[in-house]
């Protein structure tokens, strides 16, 4: 991507447009409760991710409690602020509108979570429970767009994609067992043909009760992208494990890498021709010409350099992450969690190598502070010249 874009305020639809012109997918890192915080977002951004989601934030708490705001949403005032989508959990139009109004100056867009399957969320009519309340979801996005418009943000979708005040509004959904219900849901939430209510849509093609170990429903994804992909840019969330191991093909898979990274990519060209399973023919991957972007959660957690084409996490990504953590701190236990993901075998089916052995990871988890942790990793990486983070012993 050219560096002429003001990344901090770039409109997400502009990023879709740039990716399409580069004949590649838009690359997104998923909302992940606990994990997708600033230091992690900055790390994946350094490795070619276009758009970074925050974890889901509960709009009601965010609106009412200053401490919730301070702890749930951190931005960078000094250093790269990746294009950021703030995801809210909400079930009342005014709550979503108000919370969106508060974050709009500091992000590129707002997303509504209609996919969280956890029982506490569904019991409160949040997350996946909203998949049964399509009119409410429509009312939430309509009211929020109106609020943002009144606040002076440019919310006319493609018309405003070059405006520094452009902001997007999107939803992230799961699918129903009966796909007709999902089609009805999307039809309602999209609204009028000429003036849709959302800028883009993320589909996680699993139902609320499908375990994440079950492959995504490719048939559902194929039907939904071919039905709606001309009306709205669609991202897929689920099983984006490595660029050369996607369970579908696309004309957007023929160029190997984004240009905003200096990493060492593997070619994705092979992905279009490799075979794997699909519901209709177990040997042929479905082709999804109307799919616009990829969103990764578990795989990018293990390998933040995924979109730069790395099959496994490189030491450089560990170093980048630790450098970001030093400037945008995370609780120490969370840092350890991240590192144990990054140093373990990742999600690529073709490459299960790891930066540390199981015993070494256990030893890493025994570190009790940042200084010991950095020394430990420096020593393990010693063969490659250290992490560049060794403290000054002078
Ligand atoms: C640790 C973790 C936390 C998650 N938190 C959220 C969240 O806050 N909001 C959301 O919409 N989805 C959340 N998800 C779901 C992911 O965004 C994604 O849809 C799902 O994991 C499937 O993608 P994957 O196969 O790439 O993991 C979470 C997933 C994980 C693993």
Automatic annotation (TrEMBL):
Keywords: Flavoprotein, FMN, mRNA processing, Oxidoreductase, tRNA processing. Gene3D superfamilies: Aldolase class I. Residues 252-285 are annotated as: Disordered. The keyword tRNA processing applies. SUPFAM superfamilies: FMN-linked oxidoreductases. One of its GO terms (biological process) is mRNA processing. Residues 30-244 form the DUS-like FMN-binding domain. Its cofactor is FMN. Pfam families: Dus. It catalyses: a 5,6-dihydrouridine in mRNA + NADP(+) = a uridine in mRNA + NADPH + H(+); a 5,6-dihydrouridine in mRNA + NAD(+) = a uridine in mRNA + NADH + H(+). PROSITE patterns: UPF0034. Catalyzes the synthesis of dihydrouridine, a modified base found in the D-loop of most tRNAs. Specifically modifies U47 in cytoplasmic tRNAs. Catalyzes the synthesis of dihydrouridine in some mRNAs, thereby affecting their translation. This is FMN-linked oxidoreductase. The lineage of its organism: Eukaryota, Fungi, Dikarya, Ascomycota, Pezizomycotina.
